[in-house]
Design brief:
It is a single chain. The protein has 12 helices and 8 strands. By secondary structure, the chain is of the alpha+beta class. It has 3 domains: 119 residues, Acyl-CoA dehydrogenase/oxidase, N-terminal domain (Butyryl-Coa Dehydrogenase, subunit A, domain 1, Orthogonal Bundle), CATH 1.10.540; 110 residues, Butyryl-CoA Dehydrogenase, subunit A, domain 2, CATH 2.40.110; 152 residues, Butyryl-CoA Dehydrogenase, subunit A, domain 3 (Up-down Bundle). A hairpin with an 8-residue loop joins strand 6 and strand 7. It is globular and about 65 Å long. The two termini are 25 Å apart.
């Protein structure tokens, strides 16, 4: 169980009592909303309440304004919010990805300036990595940052940038070395998206949402203090971010999908579909178990290795299996738009089709697993057993 650590049950009890006190007042925050603008406003309103009550600060270092604890505390808060019926925190998914990287690599004064506003939801983030010619091969990116007297001038083009249309800041990866330097010539920057020369163009998705965008940078001036990590040291920042992303995303996603499965089981059309529902549940519970193990690695101050790729494979399969079950059980109702909240099921189904591509395609993840785990004849379980034997 995620609340096996000594102080987590008390946190869970406190949070559950706080949520119960606000159950009626939060009816509007829990209600599903088709309009993205309304979803964004509800997510930010809840985050500000959580911050003011202290729950958005648990699990973060006290030196940065947090209340102490680890990623396990943050995971518990997310879990209890999902259980209480709050919708997915899509707009804040970067909370588990970028703040840890800033704390590890950015100048202390920059981290101090950005950290608490990020936890409160006043600063929203996007991640400027992928480009039209640099997706899986991130080291081939062409966005350029040239040093100037005041800092850097950035020119380039990012694509598939999640939440850029809603974000105020971007953690950008740009080339500061020669193209042949590949990953050794990249640097990371914090870019405020209202800076002159930045243009965000939404990409309308098949499911009707505006999550993705293209971001264009033309003669964008960035102060030197916004460099994250050393010059040409952006690859280490990127790897820190990707490890955190793949480590925390599975927990974030399963916490959202388990209530979706519960709602599906309550649909009249799902009667008699126990076998399909049970199969979807088993897959999600497998994700939960693996994601918890990765969270425990992060809680020890370590960075997950190929374990994160295992989590990614499991969650993409579980998400697609869940929405395959939705289609199987609700097909007629969805086609006629008569299922309860039909737009939610349709939107989720279409989004799930991309699960095997976004955030690292299935083939890439299998390559990582094959190279770093199978080829070496080593598994996560064997390493754990080896650690236990060494301690005896």
């Amino acid at each position: 169980m995620i609340d096996a650590a000594p102080d987590l049950p008390a946190l869970a009890e406190k949070l559950e009592a706080w949520l119960e006190e606000r159950r009626e007042a939060h009816d509007a925050l829990r209600r599903p909303r088709e309009a993205f603008e309304e979803r964004a406003n509800a997510v930010r309103a809840l985050q500000r309440e959580l911050f003011d009550a202290g729950f958005a600060r648990v699990g973060w270092p006290e030196a940065l304004g947090g209340l102490g604890g680890s990623v396990l505390h943050r995971a518990l808060v997310l879990d209890r919010l999902s259980r209480a019926g709050y919708p997915g925190r899509f707009l804040l998914e970067h909370l588990e990805i970028l703040p840890p990287a800033l704390a590890a690599h950015a100048r202390p004064e920059l981290t101090e300036e950005l950290f608490l506003p990020t936890l409160r939801g006043d600063i929203l983030w996007c991640q400027g990595f992928s480009e039209p010619s640099a997706g899986s091969d991130l080291a081939a990116l062409r966005t350029r940052a040239e040093e100037t007297r005041e800092g850097f001038r950035i020119d380039g083009h990012k694509i598939w940038t999640s939440w850029a249309g809603w974000a105020s800041h971007c953690l950008l990866l740009a080339r500061t070395g020669a193209p042949e330097d590949r990953h050794r010539g990249l640097s990371a920057f914090v870019v405020e998206l209202d800076t002159p020369g930045v243009t965000v163009s939404a990409i309308r998705q098949a499911n009707g949402t505006d999550e993705l965008a293209e971001v264009f940078f033309e003669d964008v001036q960035v102060p030197a203090r916004n460099l994250v990590g050393p010059l040409n040291g952006g690859w280490a920042v990127a790897m820190h971010i990707l490890a955190g992303e793949r480590g925390s995303y599975a927990w974030l996603r399963q916490a959202h999908l388990l209530p979706v499965l519960a709602r599906l089981a309550e649909q009249p059309a799902a009667a008699g579909g126990e076998q399909a529902l049970g199969g979807a549940l088993v897959r999600l519970l497998a994700v939960r178990c693996r994601a918890r193990e990765v969270l425990e690695i992060l809680a020890r101050g370590e960075q997950p290795g190929p374990e994160s790729s295992v989590s990614k494979i499991l969650i993409m399969d579980a998400e697609q299996a869940l929405y395959d079950t939705v289609q199987e059980l609700l097909d007629a109702d969805l086609a006629l738009g008569s299922a309860d909240s039909a737009w939610e099921w349709q939107e989720g189904y279409l989004y799930s089709r991309a699960a095997s591509i976004y955030g690292g395609a299935r083939q890439i993840q299998l390559n990582v697993i094959g190279k770093l785990m199978v080829r070496s004849g080593e598994s996560v379980d064997s390493r754990v057993r080896g650690d236990e034997e060494a301690q005896q």
